[in-house]
Amino acid sequence: MNNLEKQILDSVSLDEPWGLVESFATFKREHPTDVNRGMDEIVSRLRRHGVEVTVHEPSLYLSLPGQARVEADGKTFRAKPPAYSVDASNGVTGELVYVGAYHNAMITDMFEQKVDTTQELADRVRGKIVISEGFASPGLVSQFEEIGAIGVIGINPGVDIHWGICTSIWGTPDLDDLPRKPKIAAAAVNKDDGAALVAIAEKGGSVTLFTEMEEGWFTSKLPEVFIKGTEEPEKYVFLHGHLDSWDVGVGDNATGDASMLEIARVLWENRGSLKRSVRICWWPGHSTGRYAGSTWFSDNFALDLEQNAVSQVNCDSPGCRWATEFINLCRMSETEDFLAEVIGEVAGKTMEGERPHRAGDYSFNNIGISSYLMLSSTMPDVQREEKGYYTVGGCGGNIAWHTENDTLEIADRDILLRDIKVYLLAVLRNANAEILPFDWRATAKEFAQTVAEYQAKAGDRFDLSASKEAVDALASTLDSFYAGIKSGKIDRATANTVIQDLARILVPINFTRVNRFSHDPALTIPPLPSIAAAADLDGFDENTLGFAKTQLVRGQNRLISALRQAQRHIELLAG
């Protein structure tokens, strides 16, 4: 850590961030009116320190859950509806059918409870209400809607019921998205009530599911701070996180909002020391619009982001109690070494990184931006197991996540201070790096491993050797490119242009299926998705296998074309 970095990190204070956390712990931020109140407080606190703020006011399509309950056998069971459930204020009555599933232990697939949707299962659930283990999320709800269920009840894995969202549509729907908008009622119950309802289902009983929902267009405030750099003011590191929360949402995401507030204050005060700019945004519509705020920004500033964003950094759930470790940490491969070094210097911890999930506010993969962080620090697995906690998607691993229990006690002052400094150094060092600190050789290595794994699973049913050759050729060109940077043969401006441009090509091919400037559904995207079917050939009969091979031919063409484009771009600009 150089003297400037140390000086800037030493200026971090908890006065403003902890004050914001304490304030946000006193009011809910679910309805846009309350979210706007939180946004106004962020703006007020920033302006009090002289920070210039622009406040956008997008119109977002949101789904706001109200009350829910399940009535059966003369009893009323407490429930919570997910955002985007259909309103069933008058109740939906039907026979209850139990379809067993396992609660996924890994955060990568915790929202994608899957069952084998056979014709036999479709015949069982058609016209009925299904109950199954899992969060009331797209993976649980959409599959049963598709085969004819009239309602879905998710059994959460503990004593609490977690709020969530059941649409797979990413952000405000467009005309092409609308057919995927959920058309049935959904709710979640806790583990004990779920067991009681399963017993009713096994006796052939019926239930009535009630869900109260408010849905429509809402004007939402969205503050933006743009701190101009002194050498490349048009280029920027993009830091962002969501402000709307379930209930008071201290660990998810008042602590994140507070972290960005302090980073904005400190960097504004030290703006003369920034080479590139830093852009910071607080999002509405995260919880009730499936990342509607960040998606609106991605849509409306897409061409500027494409031209100028050197990286995007998501700030969600830092500073939570017991969150001593940096495991399950999202990062794209090219950012691994850079981020690991930052965490080691600030926290003295080893980072365990993983592929970013199709979650959080990663609304910029379609543009192609190198990305790191989503969820922040978390508690060790051993401690989580000792407490009997199951996997959740935030709050540092605390199961208060997405419940009314996510209150002030979830935040930890010392951990918050440390995590603010982690984010601050990552942003500062990224903004000031002479050469953008992203190593595409690591991404090429990831691609090679992915292709090899897919080929092993495909066997002799499909040949991916052309993909392997294209990856190898790109890797060789990248070796020469980084050697040229090290020797000084490739100048700084050229190197940075290539490193940024490679993101526009290689991020979409690794993280998206749809066209650029559109948004994939909020469902897991496998590595190199255009050839991912190679891993699933065992599941196809002889007839369907031909269709899968056709898809793979087209997908391999897309992949190889992108890899060749990346290689040509390096050779054209860097020689």
Count up the helices.
Answer: 16
The main pleated sheet reads as:
7 strands, mixed
Number of beta strands:
15
Helix content: 40-55%
Distance between the termini: 33 Å
Overview of the structural elements:
By secondary structure, this protein is of the alpha/beta class. The protein has 16 helices and 15 strands. The strands form three sheets. It has a seven-stranded mixed β-sheet with strand order 3-2-8-4-5-6-7, with helices on both faces. A six-stranded mixed β-sheet has the order 1-9-11-10-12-15. A two-stranded parallel sheet has the order 13-14. Helix 7 packs across helix 12, helix 10 crosses helix 12 and helix 13 packs antiparallel against helix 14. It is globular and about 75 Å long. The two termini are 33 Å apart. The model has no long low-confidence stretch (mean pLDDT 95).
Short description, anyone?
The chain is an alpha/beta fold and 575 residues long. It has 16 helices and 15 strands. The strands form 3 sheets. It has a 7-stranded mixed β-sheet with strand order 3-2-8-4-5-6-7, sandwiched between helices. It has a 6-stranded mixed β-sheet with strand order 1-9-11-10-12-15.
